[in-house]
Amino acid sequence: LGRRINNAVSEVTRSNVVDQSVVDTMLKEISNALMEADVDIKLVIQLRKKLKGKIEAEEEKPGVNKKKIIQKAVFDELCDLVDVKEAEVFKPKKKQTNVIMFVGLQGAGKTTTCTKLAVYYQRRGFKVGMVCADTFRAGAFDQLKQNATKARIPYFGSYTESDPVKVAHEGVEKFKKEKFEIIIVDTSGRHRQEEELFKEMVEIGEAVKPNQTIMVLDASIGQAAEAQARAFKESSNFGAIILTKMDGHAKGGGAISAVAASKTPIVFIGTGEHIHDLESFTAKQFVSKLLGIGDIQGLMEHVKTLNLDQNDSIKNFQEGKFTLRDLQSQMNNILKMGPLSKIAQMLPGGIGDMMNQVGEEETSKRFKRMICIMDSMTKTELDSDGSLFIDEPSRIIRVARGSGTSVTEVEAVLLQRNMFARMAQTTKNMQQNMPPGMGKN
Ligand code: GDP
Ligand code: MG
Fold this sequence. Notes:
Elements: H1 2-14, H2 20-36, H3 41-60, H4 66-82, E1 98-103, H5 110-123, E2 128-133, H6 140-151, E3 155-156, H7 164-177, E4 182-187, H8 194-208, E5 212-218, H9 224-236, E6 240-244, H10 253-262, E7 266-270, E8 278-280, H11 283-291, H12 296-305, H13 313-318, H14 324-337, H15 340-344, H16 351-375, H17 379-382, H18 387-391, H19 394-403, H20 407-433
Parallel strand pairs: 1-4, 1-5, 2-3, 2-4, 5-6, 6-7
Antiparallel strand pairs: 7-8
Bound molecules: guanosine-5'-diphosphate and magnesium ion (MG).
Subcellular location: Cytoplasm; Endoplasmic reticulum
Domain SRP54-type proteins GTP-binding: 265-278
Family: Belongs to the GTP-binding SRP family. SRP54 subfamily.
């Protein structure tokens, strides 16, 4: 989907004359691509009308760059499609029980994501417990137990009870009695018969009365996403989606149809197998990835032309590696490059968005805080990919104290490194896929 839309737009941006027929062809191509991906036809028609209107309105103005307008309009409208504004955002309340139930097919990433979300809330001061209501898959409880133990989250499950409704109910009641604030219920994603799975979701839902139900969706399943979302919406009326495996090759095109079909927002994306690989969803970042925007090559060129603090980080970057020390020296470089606004748009990890929202001065202040946080790290920590912070969370607390910042801010640094590392990996892959002599210096 992403590729087709992208092709359609670049077709226009390639042709020298952007006349009505070129625009019409592009709109048709985009619509076809969306419809083929099973996006609701009414939505597609709406989108096409909006795009046309926008492009025409802009055309009236003198001296505007049509290609830019078209790109921006497509971008904005796609953002609108995945941004479910009317949906209410679930905010768990402290000092009361919030039950969160997970649904989704086997392999989607439920159990992994349960733990990630538990850690996310635990870090924010909630008392969190996890319940394993997957009695179908052998080893399901062991997997949850292992994850929970690693993250130090209390858990509940049974090796002997085969009724998932019973286990779910028991676990939630137990944690409720113990005044847990967030109880996360993991469920099974497969059954002897599909019908039974959905029936089971209804029954567990009735037994645990979730305040929030989250559907976990694998970003790489493409067009199947819509049917899955519909089926689970009917049986469990989930109120949020978490899109997993966004670190892989999938750009998550299918998720647009899932969001459209279920009118439910994506709240987080999963970006790896570790417990901290969970990021807030932002429509802009998602659509950027979908359309393959993010001028990696351009950024590299720019960086190369500057006479900067050149340690091994550029080389590392091109080899697909990226340590915390690399992040620190890159942030220092970026501050030196000025004007920040130009470079920020090319960076991953929502730095461009931060720039747009809080302005250059605040962004550079935040950069400096991040650099300062990395100053409080040990040599070993700086030269690592940050995973030792995940293995030993006490390190995070130590660095937060040492730098006079907070755990959240230290986590943000780790996430930032992850995003740069991903970009490094992408760059490496791109270069490997290029014909000899291209892309490399
Ligand atoms: P479940 O059957 O829905 O409970 O799925 P699991 O949580 O067992 O996950 C299935 C597989 O996907 C495991 O190997 C996970 O490590 C992996 N996985 C889950 N989320 C992500 C993610 O965001 N990125 C990557 N790369 N792998 C993930
Ligand atoms: Mg599971």
